[in-house]
Design a protein that fits this description.
Radius of gyration: 15 Å
CATH topology: Rossmann fold
Number of strands: 7
Helix content: 25-40%
Strand content: 25-35%
Distance between the termini: 13 Å
Order of helices and strands: EHEHEEHEEEH
Length: about 160
């Protein structure tokens, strides 16, 4: 896949045959993340959104214990080089409720991993990476990555790193 500079969307898909493959993709992504990055993680219940987020957080030097933010809606990790905000918006009633969680601060200064990003779709920034996870077997998943804005060109490097 090539994404010329004038293209504002790029995509690729990858089969994740097991948890180790999911971790490899998460670690490849973690090496590319910088403050201001927004990553949406979508998929059905059990598709691996939280597992993927945990692997990203651990790759960036986060705690061994990475709780799901299902009930707290957000967990914030002060890491060596950046602040990472892990949102789970499943229980969000309206997109505007994301403001109460500090989403504006996360977008401005941190890295945002957002499970169930469709719950705040009209408020998502134009520059973001969307990762849609689907279940293809008992331990198998498929990841469809879509880079928007600046992420379109960056997705080429991520695809190469995930091979």
């Amino acid at each position: 896949m090539e994404a010329p500079a004038e293209i504002d969307t790029a995509r690729f898909e990858v089969a994740l045959d097991d948890l180790a493959a999911t971790a490899r993709l998460a670690w490849a992504l973690a090496r590319q993340l910088a403050p201001g990055d927004v990553v949406g993680l979508s998929g059905a219940l059990g598709a691996g959104k939280t597992t993927f987020a945990r692997d990203v957080i651990r790759a960036l030097g986060g705690a061994e214990e990475v709780p799901s933010p299902t009930f707290t809606l957000v967990q914030v990790y002060e890491l060596a080089d950046l602040t990472l905000w892990h949102f789970d918006l499943y229980r969000l009633g309206a997109p505007e409720e994301a403001y109460e969680l500090g989403i504006e601060d996360a977008f401005a200064d941190g890295v945002s991993l957002i499970e169930w990003p469709e719950r705040m779709a009209p408020l998502l920034p134009a520059d973001r990476l969307d990762i849609a996870l689907s279940i293809t077997g008992a331990t198998r998943r498929r990841a469809r990555l879509t880079g928007h804005g600046r992420w379109a060109a960056r997705l080429v490097a991520l695809e190469r790193a995930s091979d």
